[in-house]
Amino acid sequence: SCRSSIREPLFIHKKSVLFSRDPRQLPEWVCYDVLVRKETKDGSTISTMINVTPIEPHWLGSLAVGCKLLSLGEPLNIPSPKYDSDRDSIMCSVTTKFGDQGWVLPPIQVKMDNALRS
């Protein structure tokens, strides 16, 4: 989970179309709607994600701009910053991290003045 308050492993519900016992078949990144905690026969608890959607990590950077879970890094030299006439701004690529765990995402394009302020 992207929140540090959830420390246990999360599992995809076995009735989900994404469920697989083979970890190589599971999506690397997912978004879920509901987290259900169940007690197993041995008394331990497992957390199962419901309404799971596979996502691409580059989606998060673009969709989460302005979200507290997304942190923008320093502007990158490559690709070089360039002027965008539609936005009337100099745009640059920045490194991004997501969630309390600081998962590294692909770089995104932002206005250079925003990148320098963060």
How would you characterize the overall build of this protein?
By secondary structure, this protein is mainly beta. It contains 2 helices and 7 strands. The chain has helices spanning 57-63, 112-117, and strands spanning 10-12, 30-39, 45-54, 70-75, 82-84, 89-98, 103-111. Strands 4, 5, 6 and 7 form a 4-stranded antiparallel sheet that branches. The radius of gyration is 18 Å and the shape is elongated. The relative contact order is 0.18.
For this entry, give a set of tags.
118 residues; mainly beta; three-stranded mixed sheet
The H/E string reads EEEHEEEEH
Uncertain segments are none
Helix content: 10-25%
Q: Classify the secondary structure makeup into a structural class.
A: mainly beta
The count of DSSP E runs of length 2 or more, i.e. the number of strands, is 7
The number of helical runs is 2
Secondary structure topology:
Layout: E1 10-12, E2 30-39, E3 45-54, H1 57-63, E4 70-75, E5 82-84, E6 89-98, E7 103-111, H2 112-117
Parallel strand pairs: 1-3
Antiparallel strand pairs: 2-3, 4-6, 5-6, 6-7
What can be said about this structure in brief?
The protein is mainly β and 118 residues long. The chain has helices at residues 57-63, 112-117; strands at residues 10-12, 30-39, 45-54, 70-75, 82-84, 89-98, 103-111. It is built from two helices and seven strands.
